[in-house]
TrEMBL record:
This is Diguanylate cyclase (GGDEF)-like protein. It comes from Allohahella marinimesophila. Residues 24-278 form the EAL domain.
């Protein structure tokens, strides 16, 4: 068998493999130090409440402006953080940062704003998750009402029993959950009924074509009606065009999030955005933007 692989291609494979391992180790080491030195940043993407044209909630999205590698997005480092276990301390760092920012927003008169924080399945491997999350929020003197956590179906369904127990524990403490990327997992509709969630976020893949493909529009309308029937709040993700926004408004979707409203913003830019949104009329906010 060994003969089937010419010597130099084996050597190349071996060298590439070693190089990949070295890269991974150095990314991990840089990330560990970035976490320790507060090099990560939390950006915030506004969600627009369609019935009122107000922004009542935002989603926290982590960024890593690495001095060496440039601005890194979650897809560049979350998989490594998950496989190395560093997602656990990173997750707590994000919640702490969100608490600090919410305290500033409160002083600016935006005390009713809700912030959603993403949780990955790997964070549930920490048996003290519920306890730690609650302690951070409590110590920061932030109301649990100001928080929401986003989990994907896959995250909620892995290690089901323990995960659901943690979710229920957090729910009892007044924390709410949203089902992220809805429609991309499995057994979707059954989960809506079983999981302790209050919001569903319809994945961008369904939103993309609502204004062109009639079947997709029907599907999204069905997802919204079904969710409403179960008493759930509905957010559309990845809304990029005005016609998508108008469609979602017309069929009664509760909130929209996407580039048509704003991308994820650094905290300072979020503050300006919220101040401008508070003084603009709802019409200007929903329909006065360029698509
Ligand atoms: P997600 O929670 O589904 O977040 C939505 C993603 O879609 C974000 O990507 C956002 O920037 C992007 N997005 C928003 N509007 C639009 C749009 O109109 N068009 C397009 N094409 N994209 C849009 P981002 O920030 O790169 O985050 C990717 C994923 O990384 C998130 O998906 C979430 O699963 C994960 N993530 C982000 N921050 C955290 C975190 O603090 N902790 C954990 N555990 N995961 C995180
Ligand atoms: Mg999310
Ligand atoms: Mg999502
Ligand atoms: Mg996603």
């Amino acid at each position: 068998r060994a003969k089937a692989m010419p010597g130099n291609s084996w050597l190349r494979y071996s060298r590439d493999f070693k190089e990949a391992v070295r890269q991974q180790i150095s990314l991990e080491a840089e990330f560990r130090s970035a976490l320790r030195t507060d090099e990560l940043e939390v950006y915030y993407q506004p969600k627009l409440e369609l019935a009122t044209g107000r922004v009542r909630s935002v989603e926290a999205l982590v960024r890593w402006p690495s001095p060496k590698r440039g601005m890194l997005l979650p897809n560049d480092f979350i998989p490594m953080a998950e496989s190395s276990g560093m997602i656990v301390p990173m997750g707590y760092w994000v919640i702490e940062q969100v608490c600090k920012d919410l305290a500033i927003l409160k002083r600016m008169g935006h005390g009713n704003l809700t912030c959603a924080v993403n949780l990955s399945f790997r964070q549930f491997h920490d048996r003290k998750l519920a306890e730690t999350v609650f302690r951070i929020i409590y110590n920061a003197d932030i109301a649990t009402d100001n928080f929401e956590f986003e989990l994907t179906e896959t995250a909620m369904m892995l290690d089901t029993e323990f995960t659901i127990r943690s979710l229920i524990e957090l729910r009892k403490l007044g924390l709410r959950f949203a089902l992220d990327d809805f429609g991309t997992g499995y057994a979707s509709f059954n989960n809506l009924r079983r999981l302790p969630i209050s919001t569903v976020k319809i994945d961008q893949s369904f939103i993309r074509s609502v204004s062109e493909v009639a079947e997709d529009a029907t599907l999204v309308e069905g997802m919204i009606n079904l969710s409403h029937g179960l008493g759930l709040n509905v957010v559309a993700e990845g809304v990029e065009t005005r016609s998508q926004l108008e469609f979602l408004h017309r069929i009664g979707c509760d909130e929209a999030q996407g580039f048509i409203i704003a991308p994820a913003l650094p905290f300072e830019a979020l503050c300006s955005f919220l101040d401008a949104a508070a003084s603009a009329s709802s019409d200007a906010l929903v329909f006065g933007r360029r698509g």
